[in-house]
Amino acid sequence: MADARRYRPWGKTHGLFYEVCVMTLADQVAEIGNRIERTGIRLKEALSVIDVTFDDRLHTSSPYEAFAGLNLLIDRTVHGARIERFHPQKGASRFHTLEIHTEEGEILGYLNMLHLKRPLPCYYLVYVEVMPSFRGLGLGSRILSAFMGFLKEEGAVGLLDNIISAHEPSYELYRRLGWKALTEYMERGLTDEFATYMIFIPDSVRSSHLRQHLTRILFSLKRKRAVIDMHDNEDMVRRTIEEFQSICGALVELFRDELASGTSPPLLRFMFTRLTTKLIGFHRRISTLIGYTGGESLEQLTFSDDVLKLPVQPYSLWNLPREDAGVWGDHEVLKRLPRDLIEEPTFFIERLPFYNRPYLSGWLARRGGYPSGPLTIGDLFECGLDPTRLREFHHEGVDYIFERMSPLFFPSLMKRRDFLKKVETTISGVRFRNAVARVNPILLIVRDRGNTYVLRRKVRGVHSQEALDQLMTPHLKELNRAVGIDAAVTGTVKNARDFLKKEFASRFRREIDELTYFVPWDIERNLPGVTVDVSGISLSTLWIS
Fold it and tell me: Quick one: pLDDT at residue 289?
């Protein structure tokens, strides 16, 4: 199986797309910059709009370099920022909070801490966050230093869980500021769950039984962990919803004339579609948060009818300057592809039919079929996912799936492609809870017009999480309760993941975490493909991709 990397000149255009094809991302960036300057929206809103729209498309040391004057304005804002403290409030945050404020009162970052009063004063750092646009400018260090200054004033011990990856530059920040690993201080008696904890003991703390007191504090933290996570999640959801509201308002302001007149240029549709898909993704994630009850709901966000009726534009249309466009993967597959696909990958792929997965078929059944016109922003909200991301491709008797991915994932996709070859060798002949293990390899990776696509063969199954979600629907809930299909799915996936972690030790931890698992499923009838016999219930196959 030869490896292919094929570059191509820009191919022919397809009438409908000609106008947008000749434009570059730089043209779109310039237009957004002009709109930001003309409307006078606030700096934080402008940066949030840029992050939502271009975070995976501007490959510079700072994405804001493309926008005249923004970096200088960011530096001035950071210089004038101040840190303020807030006490817990009923109906709002349950934590003591430090916030980084601009001179205009906008919040650039925050630090949540929990006060543990006994057996000695202690503050546990629950979470610290700096707005992405302002990271790497010293604000994280400033708010942590303010936290330490507060501990000194209060005569209190500080605790935190340093979950930052050792490979990230900020990993050593706490140690540089004077924090120590808790294992260095306690020496023995710590369980694995406290292995990444760090401690700061100000000179103002006086206690002859500090180690014994810390043992009691750690026990209290362990007991309160679920409640702490619940309140932390509530606070995060509240802040994120406020951020989305701000971005939505800024986009409406930037495109006020077009929305009022009913025109919808591609850039407008692209930016609102990006915001919508991020909202939908966030909504799916918060449903799995520990203790989240829905107290803060995305239903608080309302889009006008003018926005909801906009046709979606989920993929980039614009050429990137110096884009490393091409195709990577199996040369035998590549040479059999249609000419139109090679010449204009984006336009060819985005015209393919949607992958008719259970998530999509459920929505179509509820609404009575496909929309008569183009898919709209409102359709995405109703569907609860972006159905355009997965496309079915039938060619020469073989069924494939094209998946559109963020361009940021390109390096990890290349690593995963190589790692899956190792996995295929390792799992040969292996079964997990009677399921035959197979690898569904990445056949091709395509880069074009700021988009990244992955080609795989279509399997007779669905993603394990989609299977679990379907088992909770009225259609399958009773069946699942009777035979425990969800336990078979989660158990099989866990066995496979544990096996790979043991086989590869720590060498490919990130690659293993990024693998996805597919389980047998009759998509036409929306039924799980399982085997039930005297030994119990099992899956016939587990695909790893």
Answer: 63
Q: How many CB atoms are located within 10 Å of the residue 172 CB?
A: 12
Given 3-state DSSP classes, what are the helix, strand and coil percentages for the chain, each rounded to the nearest 5?
Answer: 50, 20, 30
236-274 b/e (C-beta count within 10 Å ≥ 16 → b):
bbeebbebbebbbebbebbbeebbeeeebebbbbbbbbb
Number of residues that this document lists for the chain: 545
Residue 23 has a pLDDT of 59
Instruction: Please spell the DSSP secondary structure of 398-451, one letter per residue.
Output: EEEEEEEE-GGGHHHHHHHHHHHHHHHHHTTT-EETTEEEEE----EEEEETTE
* pLDDT value for 58: 55
DSSP 8-state symbol, 193? G
- Domain 81-206: top CATH class: alpha beta
Contact (CB, 8 A) for 462 and 357: yes
Collapsing DSSP to helix, strand or coil, 113 comes out as: strand
Token code pair at residue 237 = 């959801």
Question: Residue 308 has what pLDDT?
Answer: 93
The rounded distance, in Å, linking the Cα atoms of 145 and 127 is 15
pTM of the predicted structure, to 2 decimals: 0.81
pLDDT for the residue numbered 344 = 92
For residue 487, the model assigns a pLDDT of: 95
pLDDT at 3: 56
Model pLDDT, residue 294:
52
Q: Are 202 and 151 in contact (CB under 8 A)?
A: yes
Residue ranges of domains in the chain: 81-206, 326-353+396-544
Closest by CA to 311, choosing from 266, 360, 359, 257, is 266
Contact 459, 543 (CB under 8 A): yes
- Asked if residues 282 and 77 have their Cβ atoms less than 8 Å apart, the reply is no
Query: In angstroms, rounded to a whole number, what is the distance separating the alpha carbons of residues 121 and 356?
Result: 57
In the structure encoding, which two tokens stand for residue 127, read together?
A: 């979470």
Q: Which residues of the chain have pLDDT under 50?
A: 1, 6-21, 60-61, 63
